[in-house]
Specification:
single chain; mainly alpha; 71% helix; 0% strand
Length: 62
C-alpha cells in the first residue's frame, strides 16, 4: 500500500527490524527459562481453602 521509493523501503526496514528484535527476545526468553527453571509453588491460604483441584486448573489457565 505504500508508494514506491523511500517510504516503502523504510516501512520494510522497520517491519524486518521489529521481527528480528521480537525473535531475538523470544530466543533470549526461552534460553533464560531453560537456565532458570520455575520456582516451586508456595502454599497460600486461598490455595488451602480451594482444595487440590486449583493447582492443575491454574497451570492450565496460565
Amino acid at each position: 500500500m505504500l508508494p514506491k521509493g523511500w517510504p516503502r523501503d523504510s516501512g520494510l526496514f522497520v517491519h524486518i527490524s521489529a521481527g528480528i528484535a521480537i525473535l531475538a527476545l523470544l530466543v533470549a526468553r526461552v534460553a533464560w527459562r531453560l537456565v532458570d527453571p520455575v520456582p516451586p509453588p508456595k502454599a497460600t491460604e486461598f490455595g488451602n481453602w480451594m482444595g487440590q483441584w486449583l493447582d492443575p486448573a491454574a497451570r492450565i489457565a496460565h
